[in-house]
Amino acid sequence: MVMFLVMLLLLPPHMACKAHILNCHVHDPHPPLHKYHQSGDLIFGGIASHSYIISNALAFTEEPPQVLREELVVVPKNYQHVLALAFAVKEINGNPQILSNTTLGFHIFDSYFMARGTYHATLLLTSSPERLVPNYKCDTKNNLIGVIGGLDPLTSLHAATVLDIYKIPQLTYGPAPIMHNKTPGLSFYQMVPQEALQYEGILSLLLHFRWTWIGLLTMDLENGEQFVQTVVPMFSSSGICFAFIERMSKVSFITEVQDLIQEGAKIRDKIMGSKANVMVLYGESYSMIFLRWFPYLSEEEEEMGEDARGKVWIMTAQMELTSAVFQRTWDTQIIHGALSFTIHSNALPEFHKFLEHVSPCTTKGDYFIKDFWQQAFACVFPSTVTDVLDQNICTGEENLRMLPTSFFELSVTGHSYCIYNAVYAMAHALHAMFSSRLNSRLLEDNGKVESQIYQLWQFHHFLRGVSFNNSAGDTVSFNQKGELEAGLDVINWIASENQSFHKVQVGRMNPQTSSGEVFTIHENAITWHKWFNEARPISLCSEQCSPGSSKKAKEGEPFCCYDCIPCPEGKISGQKDMSDCSTCSDQTYPNKNHDLCISKEISFLSFEEAVGLSLALSALSGSLVTVLVLLTFMKNHNTPIVKANNRQLTYTLLLSLLLCFLSALLFIGQPQKVTCLLRQTAFGIVFSVAVSCVLAKTLTVVLAFMATKPGSRMRKWVGKRLANSIVLFGFLLQGGICIVWLAISPPFPEADVHSVAEQIILGCNEGSVTMFYCVLGYIGLLATASFTLAFLARKLPDTFNEAKFITFSMLVFCSVWLSFVPTYLSTKGKYMVAVEIFSILASSAGLLVCIFSPKCYIILLKPELNKREQLIRRTN
Fold first, then answer.
1. What pTM does this model have?
2. 249, 220 Cβ separation under 8 angstroms
3. CA dihedral 577, 580, 586, 588 (to 10 degrees)
4. Position 645 pLDDT exceeds 80
């Protein structure tokens, strides 16, 4: 039948009129059960979703009954939608500021939540009020100006299929349907904010509470699939994972109840088996009726139902806590603590008063109220039954205040608020159109608008640009896509023990805010489900990683499921759930827990610390001993032991050893540019002079014994000239190396932040490492030559053979510096400097003790040996 009627609509108007002109005065054989009519000069149409029809499916396994058994079930809460339209029209008719010369009327029909009922209602609106004649008006008083509806996307889509043909504006108070072949904004206006605002609001809510592991439940409809395809990548890019995505089958009221129960039990088990405590639900207006089945799907009803209710439900604006009549005594705890995005609404005090006076006795033309009243108050009117002995009789004096809020609310709901605004939007657009001189119109003698003068396509221009403030102070206007420019409220649903509930606004999603804070939430105002013991619910796949660790993804699982691994050495994570550990700055280092960067200690070998102080005292002690030895030798300047083996060379050696001890002090203290330039070069030069003196002494001893042989040519080499030349050559060559070093790549102060994790080591960068080892190598070369000559001359026949002591001194010297290189390279920080200082002091002390202690012993303790005869006496 519906397809036949739609095909008739495609006929030209004159052909349709011919086809049905004979039936203009015949009543429709199947009049709608629910309608609400009020006459007026201009008519607003309404498509309500007030009740649905349940019937058993026909399997055709046996002969079907002649009459299909059907049962009408009212959704009591949706009756407020009908009353909101009636109230708005009444208020406008009583307002002389709007359409003062025109009265408004309305025709409201029920869609019964199905395509057949929606098409039927839409065709009735476009034809005569009492006669269904598609594409023909048998009554010229049906001046339909626009249609308000529907509640669900499919209802709106089915209505738009017919209304688009006539260019009749359609103002929906539910989500926009997906219209593939429809020109956007042509005759479709959405009285709710755009869907994208809800998506952003849900995401902001999840991120605020750090709920990253959620379940997603949608209806298996085109809008539900679009919701899934939109939010899954959107949420995933923000770090949110889905424990499951479950689609509820499209609800058909011509179905087997057992099939519905089986599907509900399957979905319930999926919810119960998930660790996710947060469920995002995107459904139709009637979805809550089926959601409330969940606690009753198990044999262990009470125990299992409690677990099922221990979730945080996040619902979209389309959904209201609605109960069917058979759910009158059902527990409402499943929604306790739920969060819902609802259409922003303000209180309408006059509407509240209007609802308080609604009764079957005072309502005229309302064919909705009878079934509503009987099912909402569980009573019957005497005229509807023959036997009233066992029935509660409806007196008509019942009050809507007696109904639980899941059945009916006296405060305006979001959808009713949209209907109220839709009526006013059309009224203001009509007022603007009639007031405009650009639109020609004729008035009858009684001042009423002639119905055939205006065209509906003209009305769209004014409706698209409408903007006004309603009685609650909210601004109503459309954007370029025909969507209402408004925000959303975040509501916390709190269930009561009397099967009722109340709503508390805990947040706002307001894109028009001037502060720039689109999403706001008042966490302290939220009441959570008792299952969470009043604590803030947590919904995570894995426990949060504590500071000091990072996340490691589990193979084959969503990225929200991970293991926690400790941060590696040198890295930290200062917050929970870090994806990776970060490296501290050069001036800081990780603590033991790897959750904090600590400022590094400035480290250098200073005079204040024990190591530095002891080395400094050792250097000063060596210098003092050297000075005392020098003074002793100078006091005994003319004694044979001082004069032996070049006295000036001895003084030069002592002075160089003094400078060697003092050069160690350049290595102690905070490195400066000058000290970095001087300490290695000064050390290299003075040690080269000292070792050159030792070499000269050794060579002098060797040459002296060789010169004593008769006819020896070595006598010309024996003397001060050769010794001085050796010392001068050793000094000049080392000095040349140091000058080249300073010219090419000189040492400079440096802060080493990498060698030791906990310290910033202040030291001297040697510049050219090659030149540094050239200096050491040259000293080593001189020392090796001295040691070799001294070793060869150690057995020369002399009472006081200085070559023996030089051999021991150079043995100590070479041992110290051979062990210096690996030790120096294996230490870090200030201890590297300490190793070099120790090597300087040890080698200097070795030369001083081994060479000069025997002489000092003779000078101070054995002066009788300090004679020429004793020195030149040869041993056998």
1. 0.70
2. yes
3. 30
4. no
